[in-house]
Amino acid sequence: MTNSHCFFLLAAGLAFPAQAQSPPVDEQLPDPIVVQGERDPAKAIGKFVRALTPAPIGGQLARFEDPVCPVVLGMPATENGLVQDRLREVAAAIGMKIASPGCAPNLYVLVGRDKKEIIEGLDRQFPALLSGLSRGDVRDLIEIPGPVASWQILDRVGADGMPLSTARIGSDPTPVRVVWSVGSPSRISRQTKLKFVGTLITFEAKALNGVTTRQMADYAAMRTFAATDPGRVGPLPAQSILSLFDPGTAPQSAPESVTWWDYAFLRSLYASASALGASGQRSEMERQFAKELAKVPPEKR
């Protein structure tokens, strides 16, 4: 993070939340949150996965392919560090690659007075942090109800992770992106895949009163390690840290951390083959999800 980034973010309304505290750190991740799911586990798992993996027909699911490097700004240094360390802890637990200290950030957690103020400031001074978003997308981020906004910067690469090349076809001056990867596409496996170049999440400080740094970090993990948006889905079939900012939900009544269902969701996403179409990847995720939950005693799910 450059000095100019830090100066802007402080000037754009980053502020300290009133009661951001950290609970004692357990060796186990996630905490043993009790989850009441549907009677049919397979049906509940399918519903959970589908609700949190939106994609157009024929589309693909995206995730981090490169090592993740989180940076947290807007709170006292101690709290920033606790959230940043917890994000790394969760990432390691679900099988993500972790960048070394001193890395270039690709995951931003920003705390400010008003999400509109931060998003509009980023749009003016650092538009690259809103790459790929239309004007309507930016407006939706600002206007969607709630104190949190999150979005991803995406790129398409070859199925082997290599960047796509560009070429011109005939006399058309507009270059197109081409794949040089070896392999044949099919209805299931693709020659390209989507990946996160970066993800961002903004919190309004007033909404963090009573929220622990663990709750904040784990909520951020569920919003930034995957392209989830709890505001666009109905009730989930099991408890999730994504309920933390639901209307009428107090921090004390929300999960203390990622639940086992959240953990299984993220772990299954990062264990699945990312060059599949969305439907094929969801099927893989559901199988892996069930295996992860089977490792957890029923009373802890």
Describe this protein's structure.
The strands form two sheets. This protein has a four-stranded mixed beta sheet, with helices on both faces. 33% of the residues lie in helices and 13% in strands. The protein has one domain (3-20, 32-233, 253-300). The protein contains eight helices and six strands; from the N terminus they run ααβαβααββββααα. It is an alpha/beta fold and 301 residues long. It is globular and about 40 Å long. The chain starts with a helix and ends in a 7-residue tail after the last helix. 41% of the residues are buried. It has helices at residues 3-11, 41-51, 77-93, 115-125, 135-143, 213-224, 260-271, 278-294, and strands at residues 70-73, 107-112, 148-158, 165-167, 176-178, 192-204. Helix 2 (41-51) packs across helix 8 (278-294), helix 4 packs antiparallel against helix 5 (135-143) and helix 7 (260-271) crosses helix 8 (278-294).
Features:
two-stranded antiparallel sheet; about 300 residues; about 35% helix; disordered N terminus; four-stranded mixed sheet; alpha/beta
* Sequence of strands across the biggest β-sheet: 1-2-6-3
Estimate the strand proportion: 5-15%
Enumerate how many helices there are, as a single number.
8
Proportion in helices? 25-40%
Q: Can you write the helix and strand succession as a string?
A: HHEHEHHEEEEHHH
Shape: globular
Distance between the termini: 39 Å
Unreliable segments of 5+ consecutive residues: 1-28, 32-38, 164-168
Mean pLDDT: 83
Please, how many domains?
1
Q: Tell me the major beta sheet.
A: 4 strands, mixed
- What's the Cα radius of gyration? 19 Å
Structural class: alpha/beta
Number of strands: 6
